[in-house]
Amino acid sequence: MTSASCPPVSVVKLGGSLITNKERVASFCRLRTQRLAWEIASANRPVIVVHGTGSFGKPPAVQHGYDQSGALSESRGEVVAEVAASLHILRGHVLNCLVRAGMRPVGLGAVGLYRTGDGRIRHYAPEPVNALLERGMTPVISGDLVPEEGGGFAVCSSDLIAAHQAVYLSAQCLIFATDSPVLLPSQGGKRRTMVGELHPEHAAVGEIRPTVRDVSGGMFGKLNAGFDAARAGVETMIVDGRVPSRLRDAILGIPVRATRLRAEVENGGGSRVPKR
User: Fold this and answer.
1) Quick one: 57 exposed, middle or buried, by C-beta within 10 A (0-12, 13-18, 19+)?
2) Residue 237 within a domain
3) 1 within domain boundaries
4) CA gap 191, 104 in Å, rounded
5) Within-domain flag for 98
6) Interstrand relation of 138-142 and 173-178 (parallel, antiparallel or unpaired)
7) Cα(247)–Cα(39) distance, rounded to whole angstroms?
8) pLDDT, tens digit, for every residue of 134-172?
9) Which of 133, 132, 115 is nearest to 124 (CA)?
10) CA angle, corner 17, sides to 77 and 183, nearest 5?
11) Structural domain of 122
């Protein structure tokens, strides 16, 4: 839990497809990430930044065959080391953007914080994150391969990490910044409309399936993690990070076009986002 001396923290998850070019291997979107860093900095609120791995993490998963299982045995330690080196480079890019924006970020590898088992977090070491927050620093964490209970390694997705941090710290809000807002077919037509609110019983949620060859599960995994945070009482939303100022406004609590995740039906649920 947060220290009594620390103000409420917000958790911002920057999607891998938002900060990297998914059409090219290990390609970082510097200009976009720098703009997002300036937005986070200008909000001037305590935050934890979690980021996806995008084109730095998913191509190795496909290449080495753990894109669907999400697991590797101890005998494939060289793959774990290769992926860790690639993600270290990506985390460095993100840290540099945050520093240029005037923040004080410190990168933390998930491997030093988490242990997983059967797709769930089984152990968490909170001291590094808590110590940084207490000192006015910004922890920056990415998805990674972490030790699995019983042996081997498993992917601990950035969506899962972001939701866990938000719940553990009783965060003020959890914001998933993505490059693809939640779109659903409009009534009686082919046109797709951004949905303003989702709850686990919404009919559309049952139609969303894990993304093929995406070990994090794509939107399916994001919604599952987000609903867990919402059930714990954390205000949770998905925003289009491609739109300037939207992330900053969401951190500040200014109403923005977003998909809010609810633990249960509220006011009928599934309302459409106003054109604003």
Assistant:
1) buried
2) yes
3) no
4) 43
5) yes
6) unpaired
7) 7
8) 999 999 999 999 999 989 999 999 999 999 999 999 999
9) 115
10) 130
11) 10-261
What b-and-e string marks burial along 260-275, b requiring 16 or more CB atoms within 10 Å of the CB?
A: bbbbeeeeebbeebee
CATH code where residue 50 lies: 3.40.1160.10
What does DSSP say about strands 173-178 and 47-51: parallel, antiparallel, or unpaired? unpaired
Q: Between vectors from CA 218 to CA 176 and to CA 228, what angle results, nearest 5°? A: 55
- Domains of the chain: total: 1
Q: Which residue has the tokens 């894109």?
A: 67
Q: Taking residues 250-255, what's their average pLDDT?
A: 96
Distance, CA of 88 to CA of 247 (rounded, Å): 25
Identify the pLDDT of residue 159: 95
Per-residue three-class SS string for the chain: CCCCCCCCCEEEEECHHHHECCCCCCCECHHHHHHHHHHHHHHCCCEEEEECCHHHHHHHHHHCCCCCCCEECHHHHHHHHHHHHHHHHHHHHHHHHHHHCCCCEEEECHHHCEEEECCEEEEECCHHHHHHHHCCCEEEEECEEEEECCCCEEEECHHHHHHHHHHHCCCCEEEEEECCCCEEECCCCCCEEEECEECCCCCCHHHCCCCCCCCCCHHHHHHHHHHHHHHCCCEEEEEECCCCCHHHHHHHCCCCCCEEECCCCCCCCCCECCCC
Looking at the domain assignment, is residue 94 inside a domain? yes
